[in-house]
Amino acid sequence: MPRENRTQVHRQTARPSTALHGFHAAVMRQVMADLSATIQQHDLTPAQLSTLFRLRAQGTLGVSMIANQLGLSSGTASHLVERLIGRALVVRTEHPTDRRGREISLSPDGQAFLEHFDAQLDTALGKLTHGVPDALLERLTGVLDEVLPYLDRGTG
What we know:
Elements: H1 3-41, H2 46-58, H3 63-70, H4 74-86, E1 90-94, E2 102-106, H5 108-129, H6 134-151
Antiparallel strand pairs: 1-2
Helix pairs in contact: 1-5, 3-4
């Protein structure tokens, strides 16, 4: 890419990038301060937490699908699932059409954990945005609603 094009691309992304980094940092500071105790209490790794969110969004998944989505080996994903089963956050059932296959889904305890997590997240975000004028929050929400479809490409 010619230098002038790289400079133009840098200028186009520098301001949004700086703003997004700042926004992300503020959100993460507040969220981690409020949610770290819950995550530690359940002794969850980021991959385990991601698995719970994926199961909520997608229903049931096989261990190989979990491995693929998280970029893990099958053995690592299997160990991750076993730990979640041991914590009663997920259940493993027989595949309805393939007796050799197993499906992983959220247990009632796993669903309750995520509901509690969501409530804590809402509280953390409320603390973060406390004092921000309502009109500004409405604008932010509108912009995020417009941008998110471009960002959610099924990779997360």
